[in-house]
Amino acid sequence: MTFFRDLSPFRYFSRPEVHGALNVGWLSPFRYCPIGPTTREFRHRLFELCARPQLYHRGYHPCLLGLCKFTPRLFGTTASLNGHAVSLGSGIVIVRGAVDAYVAPNLIYHYVVRHWYRPPKPFIDAVLTSAPVPPIRLNVSRLTSA
Ligand SMILES: [Zn+2]
User: Fold this and answer.
1) Which residues of 108-135 are buried (b: 16+ CB within 10 A; e: fewer)?
2) Residue 65 Cα, ligand 1 centroid: separation in angstroms?
3) Where are the domains of the chain?
4) Residue 32 CA to ligand 1 centre (angstroms)
5) What is the CA radius of gyration of the chain?
6) For the whole model, what pTM was predicted?
């Protein structure tokens, strides 16, 4: 996974939906990763968002944090909530907050639940107040960055 510091300007690719948005949850091993508790409500809402990402990568990004790097997962990381299973690692979620929009890999749910990653508060607030956006199928790897 490409590393971008939380709340830095999103420049991974250029599209109108992500113009001016900020990065959240683009984690890599041995880099800055704040940890801490999150609420059950936040994790539940985050799962819903990550289950239906607005954008998709081609292929999967594996989790390389902690012990996950020793557990190769050919088809991505899965997560489940209330009997509903989703595959993580190929989706990108866009969350609109009161002031800013945030762009996160949908692996962020796994990072929060399995690695105790605690995203910045403005992102948590945005997740708690966001309405899901219908998915747009897109092949990001074919885009050129602006
Ligand atoms: Zn992991």
Assistant:
1) bbbbbebbebbbeebbbebbeebeeeee
2) 5
3) 16-143
4) 15
5) 14
6) 0.86
